[in-house]
Amino acid sequence: MTTGSFRDLSPLLNPRAIAVVGASERHGSAGRLVLENLRHLGYQGAIYAVHPKHKKVLGFPSYPDLDSLPGPVDSVAVLLAAEKVLPTLETAVEADAQAAWVLASGFAEAGPEGEARQAELARLAEETGLIVCGPNCIGVANLVDRVATYSVALSPATRAGGVSAVVQSGAICLGLANAARFGFRYLISSGNEAVLDSADYIGYLAGDPQTRVIIAFVEGIRSPQKFVAAAAAAAEAGKPILLVKVGRSEAARQAVQAHTGSLAGSDAVCDAVFRRLGVMRLDTLDELVEAAELFLTCPLPQGEGVGLLSLSGGQIGLVADLAQDLGLKFPPFSEEAQRALAEILPPYSPIANPLDAWGTGDLERTYPACVEVVSREKNIHLLAVSRDTPPQVASREVEQSLAVAEAAVRAARETGKPVLVFSNLSTGFQPEAKKVLDEGGVPYLQGTRETLRAIQTLVCYAGFRRRMGEPIAAGCPSPSDLPHWRRKLQEKGTLSEIEGRHLLASYGIPGPREAVATTAEEAVEAARRIGYPVVLKIISPHIPHKTEMGGVRVGLRDETAVVAAFREVTEAARRHHPQARLEGVVIQEMIPADAVEVIVGVLRDPDFGPVVVFGSGGVLVELLEDSSLRLPPLSHEEALEMIHETRGARLLHGFRGRPPADIDALADALVRLSQLAVDLGDLIAALDANPLMVLPRGQGVRAVDALVEVTSL
């Protein structure tokens, strides 16, 4: 879907004429504030106040109803109680209005009656094509074209710029506007999203030439596929989406028995979707603001290397602690840079990145010189300069900060790299230093963690942009028997464990040597052929998880042990699942104890489709909740990223004397599983191989257990 595929929202966001229904002169009323905002902005279009009794409201001509207006309007601001909204919208349609904004609450957030009222509103809009913002929101403001249907007083500091904000919460929209850290193209409060949702606005903004950065605060993604299309359009247009998402709903968690269902809640799936689309998710509003300031001001870095200068070892320790969890890379300085820095700083100063550039405290001399050296390093692609300069500091502090600011501006101008100055405290900016940075195109960020998160986000987005031109890798060739597996999945509700392993084997993910037995004698013969030690497991389509009910025996080393195990698992199955159909047992080769257990799987999300899951396996899967998710297909590099995002990855590298595991084979298995998800994800509700045993390096993997649940067709 291209940017041209989204609804034209200009009648709402840039109307040529506006009617304000519920206009009022009462101090503090929404009907007065909307008119005052239009006057404050200097809106040049026609403004019609609608009030049943007044001829004028705040000097604007007033009419008793929409039918009485002297000319057409693009947008109608509806500032009436909820029960009066629908009749007003019907009249607006009759008057040929194309858009409306509904302020009132009392809709879907207000129980069954409100839900019914909102459904009626949505139905009217669908039948007539009326564009509706809200209900239950504070409206929209277009600061560039100086027009707003907006019910909160605009701050004098709120100004025009390149950031467009799409915010479900009215209070948060107000807070972002009043913060005035940067200029806005649009402020959009989307509210209940009865008609237009966040994806509609983002899709429109993707094609808006005056929007450079899109920021969003969403409580949920109402139209998943539309959101995917909107985010893709923004990415194609080169417009970053910085987003805070709340409402960690469990609505999308699958009602499946597979362990993958416990690992992949809807919010984790959203993270996987955001990663694929290049949507940058932040955790707090402070992080959102700092990231927006950085994106708005700086070019994208050409690589991942970060150079950071500070004024104390303590600050560097704090940075190191915070940066560790964010995966930021601080490459070491070249030998040439180390020599240059050693000439600037005293002998006792450690030369390392991040750099303590305090020296003897002569900041005007040492700090700018250090900035120049570090900025020219080839493997440093972004420079962060720490300098705390809150308002009302001593004049001597201002002098030093001005020297640092001027050095940062020179570095940005001479290298073309992104350069930023940051304060470790969120206490505001000293005006003179801020002015130098603003004029030099260098952002001044607040807060250590917030700054590092902004840097991480910029670096990640730059990496996404570099990868955009690359084709999405196919996981592996689809197997020749793919039509057979499609037919089988369409016919069955759940594949047996053995069928599940055969499916994985078709995609090149091997299982252990195994055989099926229906009697103890057959089990003994199978164990003899496979070779001791062996594993024995009950087979039943009605018992998906065998370990919990005693249906598995491991380490069987002779005939006597196999016979006893056959009897024990059969009795346990009948005791715990008396109605289950027992089909015998499976005898498997025993995987060596030095293998590492992991889980790999596929989960079908009801909104976004199949998702690949990796996590710590075996009995640890639900205990540790240690997992990583991606959308298929995967490249080998993406599979390795998944593996190393989990805490359990330490076990794969040879923990406490164990041999290093075959991580490359594990990554290959994830790539192959991702192709299975592409080929069959529409038919599979959940699949997991738990455990998948990762053998020592060079020996591959084995899927010793497999569960496949089929979607309801």
Features:
713 residues, Dna Ligase, domain 1, 20% strand, alpha/beta, Rossmann fold, seven-stranded mixed beta sheet, 4 domains, flat
Note down, in words, how this protein is organized.
- The chain has 713 residues and is an alpha/beta fold.
- It folds into 4 domains: 237 residues, NAD(P)-binding Rossmann-like Domain (Rossmann fold); 171 residues, Rossmann fold, CATH 3.40.50.261; 77 residues, 2-Layer Sandwich (Dna Ligase, domain 1); 115 residues, D-amino Acid Aminotransferase, Chain A, domain 1, CATH 3.30.470.
- 39% of the residues lie in helices and 20% in strands.
- The strands form 5 sheets. It has a 7-stranded mixed beta sheet with strand order 3-4-2-1-5-6-7, sandwiched between helices.
- Strand 28 and strand 29 form a beta hairpin.
- The longest helix has 21 residues.
- About 2% of the residues have low confidence.
List the helices and strands and how they pair.
Layout: H1 10-13, E1 17-21, H2 30-41, E2 46-50, E3 56-57, E4 60-63, E5 75-78, H3 85-94, E6 99-102, H4 111-128, E7 131-133, E8 139-142, E9 147-150, E10 160-167, H5 170-179, E11 184-189, H6 198-206, E12 213-218, H7 224-236, E13 241-245, H8 260-263, H9 266-277, E14 279-282, H10 285-297, E15 306-310, H11 313-326, H12 335-344, E16 355-356, H13 363-375, E17 382-386, H14 395-415, E18 419-423, H15 431-440, E19 444-446, H16 448-467, H17 482-491, E20 494-495, H18 497-506, E21 514-517, H19 520-530, E22 534-538, E23 552-556, H20 559-576, E24 585-589, E25 596-605, E26 609-616, H21 621-624, E27 627-630, H22 636-644, H23 649-652, H24 663-680, E28 684-694, E29 701-703, E30 707-710
Parallel strand pairs: 1-2, 1-5, 2-4, 5-6, 6-7, 10-11, 10-12, 12-13, 13-14, 15-16, 15-17, 17-18, 18-19
Antiparallel strand pairs: 3-4, 8-9, 8-11, 20-30, 21-24, 22-23, 22-24, 25-26, 25-28, 26-27, 28-29, 28-30
